[in-house]
Structures are given as structure tokens and as C-alpha cells.
Amino acid sequence: MQNNTFSGETLRQKLIVLDEIGSTNDYLKTQTTNFTPLPEWSAIMAKHQSQGRGQRGNTWLVEPGKNLTFSFLIYPEFLKLKNQFSLSVWVSLSLVEWLENLGIRAQIKWPNDIMISGKKVAGFLIENSSRGETLRQSIIGIGLNINQTKFPQDLSSRVTSVALSTGKTQNELQEMCLSLLSHLQQNFTTFKEQMESSGELLRAYNKRLYRRGIWAPFRSIADGDLEGRIESVNADGDLSLRHRNGAISQYRFKEIQYL
């Protein structure tokens, strides 16, 4: 494990690379409790993350030294707590665009996954803290399969990687992490003025939405197993699903899952 300090102004100087850690989000959270605030865009990258977390308490399983697992810190104090879903919109769009720059067509699977040809390639977790009605800080953890080509048998039909999609191995994971951080930062600056209303961003998000307009199986707490068609996701992060009888229901996170 490297013993570095958070200093400097560039992303490269703010990125700390660790050999192995349980969770980059948890590690970064411990650093934010220090007396001196960390600079915005401070980031932790792990060559191996043994206890990576996703939504619903899922574990992000990765092969050591093969993939990107990192977390970074921002201070979105301009953003009201009620508009926090726009952070998810920003991260999702940035990941999809970054993959497109590699020649890969990807889609956004609500609420926090990125898909390639129906298989998961990335996921992210956003942990916010607030001050009153305004966000104070956000720690964003991203797991992205890069060079892993073999997965556990029970996952092999549901996950993929950049290497499997392009047929190419990426040799410089740290440089890829810096590239993705740079893209996120550029988009954050561009999107900042739009995040409060999130209208234009949300339209771009819905345009890239996985399974939108396609009849597919789901399981909801209220309705059990059903066949539905995703219509859109609204600014609050609720999923609108059309039922076979024509009715449209809205579901919050954890109220429905894909089958």
C-alpha cells in the first residue's frame, strides 16, 4: 500500500493508488473525517478491491489487477438535496460517453449500472451527505470491468468487460482511470448549470436507457412478477413502467427489479 498525501492541483496528483483495500468508498470516507478538508476530485484507486459495494448491498466482484475500481470526492454544494438524482444522470452519461470514445456502444440500466449488449460492464455507488436542503459532499465509487475475461459461472451470462467487447487488453489501468476522471470532471463543469432543472440531461439519459420501449419481465414489491415496458425515468429517479393493460406505474429504487 502506498503512503501518499492528498496534494497538488491536477487529477494525477490527487489520485492515490493502493494495492489492495476493502472498499474505496469506505476508505475515502475515513479520509474526509480529517480536520483538513480534502480537495475536490481527490480519488482512491485500488488495484484490488475485496469488499466493493453496489446498490441493494450487492458485492462488486473483480479479479485483482484486471479492472478499474475507484472512488472520488466532489462538493456539489450548488445542488439541492431534492435534485440529487441528477448526479446519477451525470455519472451514467459520462460512463456511456467514455465507453463510446473506446468504440463501445453502451446503455444505462436504471438506477446505477452500465450495460454492453445486455451485459453489465460497470456499476457505481453515490453516497451523499447534506447540510439542510443542500448537498454538502458526494463520494462516488465506480467499478468498471476492463481486462477481466473470465467470470464465475453464475455471472458469465450477465457480465462483460471492455476487453471482451473490443478484443483488446488495456495495459495502463491508472491512465484509464485518469482519463475517465478527466471526462467526468469536464462533464461536471459542462453539466453544472443544467443539473438543477436536469431537463436536457434527463432527456439524454432516457435516450440511452436500457430496455426502454421493450416488453420485458420485472418483479415488483406491489405487483409481483409482471411484463412491462420502460417508458422513462423522471427527475426524482422514479421508473415509469407501462403494463400490458395500458396502465403506467411509477417505481422507486428497490421497489422493482429486472428479471
Give the gist of this structure.
This protein has helices spanning 11-14, 24-32, 85-101, 162-166, 173-191, 199-207, and strands at 15-21, 43-49, 68-74, 107-109, 113-116, 119-131, 134-144, 215-220, 224-233, 239-243, 248-251, 256-258. It has 259 residues and is α+β, with helices and mostly antiparallel strands. The protein has a 7-stranded mixed sheet with strand order 1-2-3-7-6-5-4, sandwiched between helices. The chain has a 5-stranded antiparallel sheet with strand order 11-10-9-8-12.
Layout of strands and helices, then pairs:
Blueprint: H1 11-14, E1 15-21, H2 24-32, E2 43-49, E3 68-74, H3 85-101, E4 107-109, E5 113-116, E6 119-131, E7 134-144, H4 162-166, H5 173-191, H6 199-207, E8 215-220, E9 224-233, E10 239-243, E11 248-251, E12 256-258
Parallel strand pairs: 1-2
Antiparallel strand pairs: 2-3, 3-7, 4-5, 5-6, 6-7, 8-9, 8-12, 9-10, 10-11
